[in-house]
Structures are given as C-alpha cells and as structure tokens.
Amino acid sequence: MTNRRAVVGLDVGGTKTACGLFLDNGEALYHKTVPTSQESPAASIGQIASLIDEAIAASPKDVVVAGAGVIVPGWVNHKAHTVWAPNIEGWDHLPLRQMLEKQIPLPLILESDRCGYVKGEAWLGAARGLHDVVFLAVGTGIGAGIMIDGQVVHGHDDLAGAVGWLALNPSFQGAYRQMGCFEAEASGNSIGRKGSSIFGGEAGAARRVFEAADAGDLCAQGILEEVVAYLGMGVANLVSTLNPEMVVLGGGVFQSGSSLIEGIRRECVRWAQPFAAERVRIELSLLGEQAGLLGAARIALDNV
Amino acid sequence: MTNRRAVVGLDVGGTKTACGLFLDNGEALYHKTVPTSQESPAASIGQIASLIDEAIAASPKDVVVAGAGVIVPGWVNHKAHTVWAPNIEGWDHLPLRQMLEKQIPLPLILESDRCGYVKGEAWLGAARGLHDVVFLAVGTGIGAGIMIDGQVVHGHDDLAGAVGWLALNPSFQGAYRQMGCFEAEASGNSIGRKGSSIFGGEAGAARRVFEAADAGDLCAQGILEEVVAYLGMGVANLVSTLNPEMVVLGGGVFQSGSSLIEGIRRECVRWAQPFAAERVRIELSLLGEQAGLLGAARIALDNV
Q1: What ipTM does the predicted assembly reach?
Q2: Distance (Å, whole) CA A52 – CA A68
Q3: E strand or H helix that includes residue A146
Q4: Set of chain B residues whose Cβ sits within 8 Å of the Cβ of A165
Q5: What is B195-248 written as a DSSP string?
Q6: B138 vs B153, B183, B207, B213, CA distance in Å?
Q7: For residue B13, what is the DSSP state?
Q8: By Cβ atoms counted within 10 A, which residue in A68, A100, A148, A263 is the most buried?
Q9: Integer Cα distance of A208 and A124 in angstroms
C-alpha cells in the first residue's frame, strides 16, 4: 500500500486562524478554525504549533504529512527572516519562522496572505491552471497577490503587491498618508468611513452602505459609484502593468458587493491598455475565505 | 587559440536603427547607425538583414558571431509570432521573425524596446548586477521594462509594461482614450502639447518648455511641476506594485529634464508604500541611447 502525501495549511488572520490538512489533490482531511490568540507572541506561536500538532494527529494512518505552509496578514521578510503583522499582538519584526521551527516536526514555509490567495485561486479557484494572475484583495485594507509565469512575485524586500498605495488621484489627501490613496478611497473601511456621516460609523458600516444602495438610497449609490471608479482604475493599472490572464477579486467588500464587478470591468476597459483590457478576465474569487487556506497548503506542497 | 564569442545587437527605432557587434563582456567591436527604412516591410526587413550581414562581415577573424538580438518599438507577440509597430511602415501584425530568419544565418531573438532597455541597464548601466529593476522610458510615449528576479516580465500577451496607460486622475479626459492617462499627462509629446499654447507647437516643443523653465518662465515651470507630479505618481505605483531595487529613468524627456529626478523622488516617497519607497533607488539611465542596443545584445547572449 502506498502512503498518501498531505500537508498542513494554516491561515492566520487578525481575528481567526484556520488550519487544515490537505492531500496533494486539494482534498481536505481535517479542518479547524479558532479565534486568533492575541495575548502575546509566545501565545500566538504556541497556538499555531498546537494547531499543526492537532492536524498531524488527526491524519489517517496511510497519510504522510510532509510539510506545513503558514500565511500571515502582514509582511513576511524572507531576507531578514522576520514577520511584521500589525493586527497580531507583538508581531513586530518577529523571527516567527525560527520560533515556530523549534516547535514543529515539519518543513515549514511562511508567506504573506496575499501570496496565499493568488496561489489558492490559481490552484483550485477562479484562475485554476492559469499562470499570469493577480488576486486583488479588498477588505479592511487593499493588497494584491501577483503571479507571473506561475511564480508568485515577492519583490526585492517581499513588499510587492502593496497596491493599497496606488496613487490614483493627483489631489493628495491626508488619509492617503496613513494607508495609501487606493486603500483610502476603496477599502471596506473606507466605504464605511465614506458612509458614516449618513449611516453612522463603526463596524459593519460598509455593509450598511451596500444595503442602503440596494434599497435605492441615492447617497449610498453615489458612494459606491465612486468606489467602483477607483476599483476600476486600480484594476486597470494592474492590467496595463502586468498584462495578466485574469484578475480575481476577493476580500470582504466583494462578499457584500459582488454586483460591483460589472462596473469594475467597464472602468477597466476605459482606462487600461486596450489589448490587455480586451484579453484579461476579471472574475470574483471562487474560494472566498478558503483561498488563503488552500493557498497555504499549495505553498507547502511546492516547498516539499 | 580560443575563439571569442560575439553577438549582433540591433535597435530598430521609428527614425533610426542602430546595429552593433558585441563581445560577451559588452565590448563593442563594430557599430553603425542608419535612418530606418520606411518604404515597405520588405525594405525595412532587408535593411535589418543587411545590417546584420555587415556586422558579421566586420567581425575579426578570432570572433564567432553566435546570434542576433533585435529590439523593436512596438508589440512583439511571442505567441502569434508577429510584430506590431505603428511607427514603422507596414509593421502591422507582421511575422517579422519568420521573414528575417530566412535572410539571416544566425539564431535570432526579437523583443520589445522596453525589454531591451531594462536588460541593458541591468547588464552594464545604472542597475548593473541588480535583479529587480524597472526601466521607465519617457519619450514620445511612456512604457516600462520590468525585470523580476533577473527575468524580464512579458505578461500573458507580451503587453506587460504598458504603463503609459496608468490611470492617475479620476477625472477622465479625452486625450486619455488615445494614449492612456499617464502618457497624456507626462510624455514628451504631452509636455510639448501642454506648452504649445505658450511656446508654439510642433517638434521640439517639449525642449522649449524645459528651456523656458530653466530661464525662469513661471508658466513653463508650472507645466513641469504638473509633469513631475504625474511622473512621481507613476513611479510610486511601480514601486508599490513591484517593490523593485531600482527604477531607472530614461528616454528623451530625461535627456532634457534630468533635473526632474529630485521632484520625482520626493513625489514617490509621498505616494508609495513607505518601506518600498525607502528601499528603492531612483536613478537616471547611465546608458542613454545605448541602453536598447546593449540590451538587444544581452538578449541575444541569453538566447545562445
């Protein structure tokens, strides 16, 4: 009897952490999601190690667990061997890989969440089998995973895909300084902020803008029109620069706002290099919240 | 005695064509520049073949000419095996490589001029030895050569780097439709056009704007300030998206306007992802008009 090969994928987020055990065809053998530990780096690292141990323990007898892939919501600096993730307590240039390796009996690879998203979608999602793909994640913030010729682009300091900082409006505004122009104009948080004067602020404000627009509120519709204009410009810039086969749209904003895609396609045609715009497909994520977890598994498979 | 290896490099432009014979250390053994033939595709292809023949004939006895690299001012579609170059008569989806190969006794490779520029600068120019480099060419038009991990990025349809189409101003204007927003705001032609109401139009208008600004003309200075703002946004977008080690600025505008670089660096810091902006070096082309020719030679060397 031949053993089957599996890997552990782990998607660490600011609020929850998902862990799964996957065969190399993508089949899930085990899955668990927990709230992300925010007490201390030791606690969050211990949590990751425990989740990996549990996944290994849950593997069937004929399965060999060959490695683990962990994606994190921040900057995985492969040269400095550190991780910076502002949404997780104490992950401030933390030598995460070194600290985890001591506790884990598997080959380990770390990547940023946006690398995971594009790997996941290109493996089993909307971009299945494609080699030139951009995943544009529009949630609390904005970032992109970029795949060229089948390889994820890291950039010289592992910062590639920081497209929340795309400059899209020559009239510089204060909010751009904190998060970049594109993110200040079109992220979920920014939709909430743009709507807060009308719908009240705080959590869920973006969703309330979408709901109001659906119900015919002209002000909410105006906010979303502006957001679509910026999303179209951002997508167009990725299309003109990289000439991908597909741009996959994912993240929380598209869970509420899947209807935005038609407007984004139209704006992309208006702005982007015409042949590149004609050739590219712009699609919603198929994997949704699973994109990162499957991407982490794919990264682990590519590493072992 | 060991033979030395050389290649022919050929940089075909809309007005002139340069041809050189280069050793694999970059040393030039022969060089010739002629006005580009514009009579017909047969004539321009014959001209290229003749130039390559002459370069081979001019090679010293101990030199083996191993291949030729040709860069062209347009779209080299590697999948369709065609070239589209609007500035050369009849190069309208022309099967250039197939037509040239019949006339040339060497392995031949075609690339776009912007691929050539970045290869040249990364070989022997400002970005010598670097692996993550963007060459931003700002002349008549705007385009970028992108190198990631030492490989030139082509995109799925060989259109990557069409950054003249970057969307940088949400207020869409008619001129953007023809050439893209970035090109309409910041190319040499556009500087000339912006200055034409003041300095008269036509050829050399961009240079006259630079001269007037140098002489203290406030209106010309205002035009260049706006141009620098757009160039800074464009560079920032490449930095945030790709996180290169260096952005090399080349093309005719920087031959007149080398003083623009300080403003571009300042604007890039204002707009781009802060760590990526801190890390990137923004430098003027060292090779100038030779970047393309040396890049063509480098492409040929990599191909043989």
Answers
A1: 0.96
A2: 8
A3: strand A142-148
A4: 236, 240, 271-273, 276
A5: HHHHH--STTHHHHHHHHHHTT-HHHHHHHHHHHHHHHHHHHHHHHHH--SEEE
A6: 19, 8, 13, 19
A7: -
A8: A68
A9: 32
Q: pTM of this prediction? A: 0.96
Give the right CATH number for A128-284 from 3.40.50.720, 3.30.450.20, 3.20.20.80, 3.30.420.40. Answer: 3.30.420.40
Q: What is the pLDDT of residues A243-255, one digit of tens each?
A: 999 999 999 999 8
Q: How far is CA A23 from CA A6, A10, A50, A56, A127, in A?
A: 4, 14, 20, 12, 20
Provide Rg for chain B, Cα atoms.
20
Amino acid at B1: M
Structure tokens at B286: 């060292």
CATH 3.10.20.30: does it fit domain B129-284?
no
Over the stretch A264-288, which tens digit does the pLDDT of each residue have?
A: 999 999 999 999 999 999 999 999 9
Look up residue B90 and give its DSSP letter: T
Residue with tokens 């399965």: A63
Among B157, B269, B282, pick the best mutation site for testing chain A contact (most A Cβ within 10 A). Answer: B157
The beta-carbon neighbor of A273 closest among B159, B241, B244 is: B159
Residue A86 CA to residue A237 CA, distance in Å, equals 27
Q: Test A241 with B166 for CB contact under 8 angstroms.
A: yes
